[in-house]
Amino acid sequence: xxxxxxHNHHVILSEAASLELGCNYSYGGTVNLFWYVQYPxxxxxxxxxxxxxxxxxxxxxxxxxxxxKSKFSFNLRKPSVQWSDTAxxxxxxxxxxxxxxxxxxxxxxxxxx
Amino acid sequence: xxxxxxxxxxxxxxxxxxxxxxCSPRSGDLxxxxxxxxxxxxxxxxxxxxxxxxxxxxxxxERFSAQQFPxxxxxxxxxxxxxxxxxxxxxxxxxxxxxxxxxxxxxxxx
Lengths: 113, 110
Known about the structure:
- The structure holds two protein chains of two kinds.
- By secondary structure, chain A is mostly beta strands.
- Chain A has strands at 3-5, 10-14, 19-21, 24-26, 31-38, 44-50, 56-58, 64-68, 73-78, 87-95, 101-103, 107-112.
- In chain A, the strands form three sheets. In chain A, strands 2, 5, 6, 10, 11 and 12 form a six-stranded mixed β-sheet that branches. Chain A has a four-stranded antiparallel β-sheet with strand order 3-9-8-7, with no helix packed on it.
- Chain A is globular.
- The mean pLDDT of chain A is 92.
- Chain B is mainly beta.
- Helices cover 0% and strands 55% of the residues of chain B.
- Chain B is built from no helices and eleven strands.
- The mean pLDDT of chain B is 93.
């Protein structure tokens, strides 16, 4: 069965610190990968996605993620976080050719001003 | 604004009751997805409809059912409610591989 693991449940950083949130999935076939963000009191929004091609994908607000197929990972990064990045971040996987999406349990990021 | 509308925003009810959550997808989107977000289980995929037909099923309880109507809006029906059903229920719509989420319905079962 497919699964998605987000290793860090809570992360606290100071402004300007670098961020890396881990995401690992288990599925042997081809996948589409996503990172969503949920700001306090708001709905989930797509940060970035990977379908194919360059494994380093850039998203909105300075976020990027790297797909490492051999490690079944899709880690999210940002070189310098801002207070406004305080939110919950979800990694999601869709096995290509299926219609099910599996989300990780989320990582709550708190950025201290 | 994602273009996906969910009503109501909040719902408070008692155990054993039945409720209906409504979702209007973005204009042109044929797919509707339902998710349950609880503190202990994260975001769980419940069910997907595409153009009126059920397409995929996730961890949806037998007490829960959904449908998508000809105008593409969808309803999630939750019956015989239990305390553990208290959660945020999200609807998402999409035309391809990307989903656009609504603001959710917060269900509190007392």
